[in-house]
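R.M. (postdoc): so does anyone remember the format we settled on? I'll just put the structure tokens first.
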């Protein structure tokens, strides 16, 4: 796994504004040294090696700024996607007192001392995968930190360096500030991660928004494979995985049985392989549904939904899934197969439904299951497919469509009050489109 590469904590550059709930830093420096090449500098290498024969050590340096305290810090590394990057030993991680070393000058002959406390270790690692080590004991606030990685194995590991781009090392710092009091925040989008940069932009928005994260499917493109979750989703929205309540999309099901999706999210995706589940937030009951399996009246999912709603004691109800019953998008027509789910929610006096699938944003007035305006019992619905994938255009604008935008990625933030909800479209950096409002529960 890891050879004797020393990793010095690289200086990080914050991806979000100061005092964000979660800030991700990338190294200001990273390199490795090799006792088989004592005078060679590997600072510009795309790879960070650790080994015990020859002895290789990796050094990382991060500069943390703009945080008001640290409640948790994780070092995240990605193994190189090459043969031999895997190892039975992912390495031992230690603090270093030297933070003045430079990436382009360090060699085996002049390497800084690995003289600090052990922060953690990794067991076996495979190629092309993300791993993380808790370094909270070292990263206690703003400052520069060095971390070394060594290995006792003669079958060492290879990680991607900061020169690798999206798979560069990350230091993910959770701010220690006590969350402000208030009603639950529920935020997310669908149609998220691919080889482009859109998911990076929307993940940066989540860094600054506390609360529960939801997804309306097509979490990763193009096929929902384990590798695509590791390569595209994990380095962006993946840093918010612990607070995410997902739903699956059709691209997640390009992998048979959506096994990439279910294996990645585990218990957070509900009972294994089923794809629908529910939970409560404050005064709200929330249901995540699966529009990739049968939704017909009398189906297992539809019957479960009716029973789940009947058992809820919460005064407000929301639901979300991938295929939209209402949409003006040009690429995907309304999915009438989802109407039995909407009908069950309408019969239970639900208040809010969110879809994805069309890569755009659209807000509808409260409607009944047939799409008629219903200001008394209607459910307000949103299409929130602007999580990162390429934008889609609009076709004929459907009745009761009140707001829409394409070409601006973002997240949709709900604040769930005791008997109402606020919505806010939060645009990616550099864009100005927004939409906001309030609706009472029934």
């Amino acid at each position: 796994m890891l050879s004797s590469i020393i990793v010095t904590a690289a200086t990080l550059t914050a991806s979000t504004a100061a005092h964000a709930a979660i800030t991700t830093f990338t190294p200001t420096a990273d390199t490795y040294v090799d006792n088989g090449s004592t005078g060679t500098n590997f600072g510009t290498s795309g790879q960070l090696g650790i080994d015990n024969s020859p002895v290789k050590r990796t050094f990382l340096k991060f500069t943390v700024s703009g945080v008001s305290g640290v409640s948790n810090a994780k070092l995240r590394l990605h193994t190189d996607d090459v043969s031999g990057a895997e190892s039975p030993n992912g390495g031992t991680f230690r603090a270093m007192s030297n933070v003045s070393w430079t990436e382009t000058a360090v060699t085996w002959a002049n390497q800084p001392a690995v003289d600090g406390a052990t922060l953690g270790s990794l067991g076996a690692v495979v190629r092309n995968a993300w791993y993380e080590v808790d370094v909270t004991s070292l990263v206690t606030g703003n400052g520069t930190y060095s971390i070394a990685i060594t290995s006792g194995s003669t079958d060492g590991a290879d990680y991607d360096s900061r020169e690798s781009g999206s798979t560069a090392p990350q230091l993910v710092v959770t701010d220690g500030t006590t969350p402000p009091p208030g009603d639950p925040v529920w935020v997310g989008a669908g149609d998220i991660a691919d080889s482009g940069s859109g998911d990076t932009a929307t993940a940066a928005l989540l860094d600054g928004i506390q609360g529960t994260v939801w997804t309306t499917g097509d979490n990763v493109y193009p096929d929902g494979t384990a590798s695509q979750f590791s390569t595209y989703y994990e380095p962006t929205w993946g840093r918010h995985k612990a607070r995410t309540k997902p739903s699956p999309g059709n691209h997640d099901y390009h992998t048979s049985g959506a096994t990439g999706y279910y294996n990645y999210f585990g218990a957070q995706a509900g009972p294994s392989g089923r794809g629908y589940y529910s939970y409560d937030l404050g005064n709200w009951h929330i249901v995540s549904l699966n529009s990739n399996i049968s939704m017909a009246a009398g189906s297992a999912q539809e019957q479960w939904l009716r029973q789940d709603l009947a058992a809820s004691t919460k005064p407000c109800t929301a639901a979300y899934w991938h295929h939209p019953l209402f949409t003006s998008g040009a690429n995907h027509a309304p999915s009438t197969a989802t109407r039995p789910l909407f009908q069950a929610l309408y019969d239970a006096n639900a208040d809010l439904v969110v879809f994805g699938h069309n890569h755009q944003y659209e807000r509808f007035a409260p409607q009944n299951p047939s799409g008629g305006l219903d200001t008394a019992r209607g459910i307000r619905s949103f299409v929130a497919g602007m999580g990162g994938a390429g934008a889609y255009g609009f076709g004929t604008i459907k009745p009761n469509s009140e707001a829409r935008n394409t070409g601006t990625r973002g997240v949709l933030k709900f604040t769930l009050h005791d008997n109402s909800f606020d919505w806010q479209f939060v645009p990616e950096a550099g864009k100005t489109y927004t939409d906001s409002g309030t609706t009472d529960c029934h």
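R.M.: ...and that's the designed sequence above, right after the tokens. Also worth knowing: The radius of gyration is 24 Å. The helical segments are 198-207, 226-233, 259-265, 300-311, 339-347.
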